[in-house]
Amino acid sequence: MISIILGLIGLSIVVIFHEFGHFVFARLSGVEVEAFSVGWGPSIISHKGKKTVWKLCAFPIGGYCKLKGEEGFQAAVDQNLQYIPSEKGSFFSATPLKRIFIASAGPLFSVLFAAFIFILVASIGTTIVTAPNRIILSSEIGSTLQSGMPNPADIAGLKTGDKIISIDGKTIRDYSDLQEIIASNPGKTMSIEVLRNDKKHSLVITPLLDPNSGIGVIGVYAWIDPIIESVQEKSPAAIADLRPGDIIMEADGRPISNTVDLMQVFNNANGSVSLRVKRGDQTLSMIIVAKSLEEAGIRFEGILRTEKAKSLPEAISMGVEETFSTISLEIKSIGMLFRGVNVFKAISGPARLTYLIGTAASEQIKAEGLAGLVPILDFLAFISIALAIMNLLPIPALDGGRVLIYLIELIRRRPINAKSLYRFQFIGVASILLLFLVATMSDIFFFLGK
């Protein structure tokens, strides 16, 4: 329940800032705002201001901004009028240029909100838990991305134990950097520099598009040394007396070089694994009863990378750079939908977004207290930019579709016929309903698979 509440709060904040953009620009353009609501459905609390009714509604999912005269469109259709009627202070009494500003304001505020969050995160500082830039070929444990085809990493000539130090001239500090650049460039051929036995090698690699996630993959795992960082209380590892600092040397008689080796042993075992562990100057033997490495309750040593601006100007620079980087990444992601991606797995609807935000927030707070909210802020900024980009698509009934209509009016210097506008809006509503259906089905498949 806590996860759901946190998720709804996070998603609502993103949507409310978007709607607040419409509110601000409407007021600046002389258009009256009849109601501004947090949530949907029956009103719980309301306050009537000078011209606007402020409401808190029963269903806390986003909100809306109701402009005076928006229903004029429906009135024109019902009364078979050629053009939409307007009155002073109504939306359709505003010039096309002002209506363009009002429609664009929501996406603009979504981007500004994301930029503010990125600047805030840069000021506070964020710690990334990741792994070294050393890799393991997934093909060596029988994992291939395409049946009967070698993985991109194998085609490129990468080998287990290689350290990837740069891609297309960009320095790879750790596995997080590697994931980011590979994920965002499926199908792009890139130069890659690796360190192998203290010698540099230059290779070429082309990430493959994963149809289920819509990101680029090459078929590698992170190399993590089998050094225990922490043991979960009352877990199988704790019962077996494993301790932080222990180095796992063997499992069921097999030498262990990394955590993938250990994972394989657990996957092939029958519920228990015998270990040889180095603890200081001692070598100990023990048995751990667990069906998988995840169930064992062991956390292995990784890399902690802290990113924090040294000054406010640097924080602003970092925040703005991250904003544009995220916009670029999300535009690329939309393009991936037309390249054979499984939309039922790659697209998330409101239910899954609420679940992901809430679960991430509750887990981070539980582990790190209020400091755990910093990564969640990043996630909210990402969603805010996604909302902006989605709304700017030239689909009728979305902000982008409205901008297109008013732009046509501006160029033609006369209003669009109400019936033509109705047909245009009907297509938009049908498109949105189809998208909502796909997102809902995607959410259902996601929860059924959990």
How are the SSEs ordered, and which strands pair?
Layout: H1 2-28, E1 33-48, E2 53-67, H2 72-78, H3 96-124, E3 126-130, E4 135-137, H4 152-156, E5 163-167, E6 170-171, H5 175-183, E7 190-196, E8 199-205, E9 208-209, E10 216-217, E11 220-222, E12 228-231, H6 236-239, E13 247-251, E14 254-255, H7 259-268, E15 272-279, E16 282-289, H8 293-296, E17 298-300, E18 303-307, H9 312-336, H10 343-346, H11 350-368, H12 373-391, H13 399-412, H14 418-448
Antiparallel strand pairs: 1-2, 3-18, 4-11, 5-6, 5-7, 7-8, 9-10, 12-17, 13-14, 13-15, 15-16
Helix pairs in contact: 1-3, 1-11, 1-12, 3-9, 3-12, 3-13, 9-12, 11-12
Task: Jot down its keywords.
4-stranded antiparallel sheet; Pdz3 Domain; alpha+beta; 14 helices; 450 residues; 18 strands
Structure explained in plain terms:
With 450 residues, this protein is α+β, with helices and mostly antiparallel strands. Helices cover 46% and strands 23% of the residues. The chain has helices spanning 2-28, 72-78, 96-124, 152-156, 175-183, 236-239, 259-268, 293-296, 312-336, 343-346, 350-368, 373-391, 399-412, 418-448; strands at 33-48, 53-67, 126-130, 135-137, 163-167, 170-171, 190-196, 199-205, 208-209, 216-217, 220-222, 228-231, 247-251, 254-255, 272-279, 282-289, 298-300, 303-307. The strands form 7 sheets. The protein has a 4-stranded antiparallel sheet with strand order 6-5-7-8. Strands 14-13-15-16 form a 4-stranded antiparallel sheet. A two-stranded antiparallel ribbon has the order 1-2.
